[in-house]
Amino acid sequence: MTFEELKALDHQYTMQTYGRFDVALDHGQGSTLYGLEGEEYIDFASGIGVASLGYGHPAWLEAVETQAHKLAHASNLFYTEPYARLAEKLCTRSGMAAAFFANGGGEANEGIIKLARKYSFDKYGKGRANIITLHNSFHGRTITTLQATGQDVFHNYFFPFTEGFRYAEANDLASVQAQAGEDTCAVFLELIQGEGGVLPLDKKFVQDLAAYCAENDYLLLVDEVQTGIGRTGSLFCFQQYGIQPDAVTFAKGIAGGLPMAGVLCNEKCRNVLGPGTHATTFGGNPIAAAAACAVLDTIDGDFLAAVNEKGEYLRSAITALDAPCVETVRGMGLMVGIVLKDGVDRSALVKQIYDSNVLVLTAGPKTIRLLPPLVITQAEMDRGLAVLKTVLCGA
Ligand SMILES: *Cc1c(COP(=O)(O)O)cnc(C)c1O
């Protein structure tokens, strides 16, 4: 099938929900992807932070193949080994007590919201169900997580949304306090606002907020759907902020390309979602869980140190370009935001980057976002950087 034939077929039979790039992908190896006619792309996007081990990683392939031969699906009516093993690995390495598995970030965030509301209901009764989120956040596309998202553009069309969310300014504890009260059960935030523009929160704000939440028994909930599972150079980003949330969600990179997500919570929340209160048919599927175990076994201390080095390398190389269109370069680990100056035509730059066979993402109004596979090699980074140099410095 040619690219034009594929595009025509897609347009004829699929809801045109996505503004796709003019690229079709067929297969990949390492952090390089290939189109239908063998065109080669350097991957600085990893399918929005999902392909953490790139493509064709031997440990991932082995885990998925083996589990596919044994048992693809069981449902949560039965015990399966990958589910329990994955939970053990995540809890041990995050300091959390218990896991629940889901299929995607939005669904995991629904779970953490239910956890917070029921924790509060069990302890304090009705009327304490409000959750504070931050302006410029992103928490998902379900009716509830759209409302949790602190950006007005997401609060359209789909009325009525779920009640019970209030928004505070990031890096402003007084703003959180102004929204909090007797009806508050939790504060929910991303430590680096990903879709919002790769904006890391201030460490002091986060630590003060954690103390404030603890004093008032508001659960501190962290959305690590994008920042989790090695992306920022630690297994979870909260580990670099020196806090321990009550619960955290993860998704994108956990299973290296298969749909998998979940919630981890601490001891005081572990029994909140008892039998009959929350469930999913697919969540924790054995193949996805086995893949996730392989991802976690690969992302060890040395691997995470390399993620930090690569992130530093990318950020300093882009900063050193001193490109006239770039305002600043920010992020942590392999979550990189290239913030453009006001008035720069981002879509023209992104198109040029794609035309030069490098896949990148955008975030917020003026950021080019890089989320390469965590296994990206020096050679692959340098090939992508050469294109960024030509495009950013030519602009
Ligand atoms: C991607 C993302 C989500 C939504 O995840 P889906 O898997 O698309 O439902 C939620 N929160 C954050 C921070 C994300 O980056």
List the helices and strands and how they pair.
Blueprint: H1 3-13, E1 27-29, E2 32-34, E3 40-43, H2 46-49, H3 58-70, H4 81-94, E4 98-102, H5 105-124, E5 130-134, H6 143-148, E6 165-168, H7 173-179, E7 184-189, E8 192-193, E9 199-200, H8 203-216, E10 219-224, H9 238-241, E11 247-250, E12 261-265, H10 286-298, H11 301-321, E13 326-332, E14 335-340, H12 346-355, E15 358-359, E16 361-363, E17 367-370, H13 378-394
Helix pairs in contact: 3-10, 4-10, 11-13
The chain binds pyridoxal-5'-phosphate (PLP).
Question: Which key phrases capture this entry?
Answer:
single chain, 395 residues, alpha/beta, 7-stranded mixed beta sheet, 4-stranded mixed beta sheet, 13 helices, 17 strands, 39% helix, globular, binds pyridoxal-5'-phosphate
What does the overall shape look like? globular
Computed structural class: alpha/beta
Helix content range of the residues, please? 25-40%
Ligand set: pyridoxal-5'-phosphate
User: What topology, given as strand order, has the largest sheet?
Assistant: 4-12-11-10-7-5-6
Order of helices and strands: HEEEHHHEHEHEHEEEHEHEEHHEEHEEEH
Number of extended strands: 17
Largest sheet: 7 strands, mixed
Q: Span between N and C termini?
A: 35 Å
**Can you tell me the residue ranges where pLDDT is under 50 for at least 5 consecutive residues?**
none
How many distinct helices?
13
Mean pLDDT value: 98
**What proportion strand?**
15-25%
CA-based gyration radius: 21 Å
What does it look like?
The protein is built from 13 helices and 17 strands. With 395 residues, the protein is of the alpha/beta class. The chain has a 7-stranded mixed sheet with strand order 4-12-11-10-7-5-6, with helices on both faces. Helix 3 runs antiparallel to helix 10, helix 4 runs parallel beside helix 10 and helix 11 (301-321) packs parallel to helix 13 (378-394). The longest helix has 21 residues, at 301-321. The mean pLDDT is 98. The structure holds pyridoxal-5'-phosphate (PLP). Pyridoxal-5'-phosphate binds at residues 104-106, 109, 138-140, 190, 194-195, 223, 225-226, 251-252.
